[in-house]
Amino acid sequence: MDMKHLHHILPRHMGGNNDPSNLIELTVEEHAEAHRKLYEEHGRHQDRRAWLGLAKMMTRKEIIREILTAPKSEEHKRKISEAHKGRPKPWLLGNTNAKGNAGKPKSEEHKKKISLSKTGKARPDLIGNTHAVALKGRKKKSAHQEAINKALNSVEVKEKISASWANKPLVKCPNCGLEGKKGHNMNRYHFDNCKKKR
Questions:
Q1: Domain ranges of the chain
Q2: pTM value?
Q3: If you count DSSP H runs as helices and E runs as strands, how many of each does the chain have, helices first?
Q4: Pairing relationship of beta strands 179-181 and 170-172 according to DSSP bridges
Q5: Are 37 and 54 in contact (CB under 8 A)?
Q6: CA–CA dist 63, 60 (Å, integer)
Q7: How confident is the model at residue 99 (pLDDT cuts 50, 70, 90)?
Q8: How does pLDDT run across 18-54, given as a tens digit for each residue?
């Protein structure tokens, strides 16, 4: 005895429903043929996949791959967008730590605590960031270099640099006894790199 399938006379993708008047029992071969005729008449990819799948001309895996890789129509994108409205973002599920503080300004103490908690940790926004790698070693155009120089030589930037250096503590090289602000030059030419280090 041949296995029977329930076939939608007007397919669901064309607005058909599960009403008994819209259903008919067909064999697998008849079902494949019905979808082939629908595909030839209307050109819908759903009927093509149903026909090829029922006729064993396409595997289930191939059909799923085709569905997932097919470009989505604007109508399909709109339906997905509407379906997701009001739903929580998957990357925020379970994270309710900041819900009570949403939109509230943070105190200086709070900002300091956040900064300390992140000190020394890898920044996920920079992991794999290779945007500037292709430009490494290339000579900058004169307009680009001028823009950089102008930005770095502005009064605001100079004031920020001066303020940051004013707050740096004084350190003394144990090898030569030179005293200076803690920073790049002291680290570069003194301590482990000092010429007078024995």
A1: 4-69, 159-198
A2: 0.39
A3: 8, 4
A4: antiparallel
A5: no
A6: 5
A7: low
A8: 999 999 999 999 999 999 999 999 998 899 999 999 9
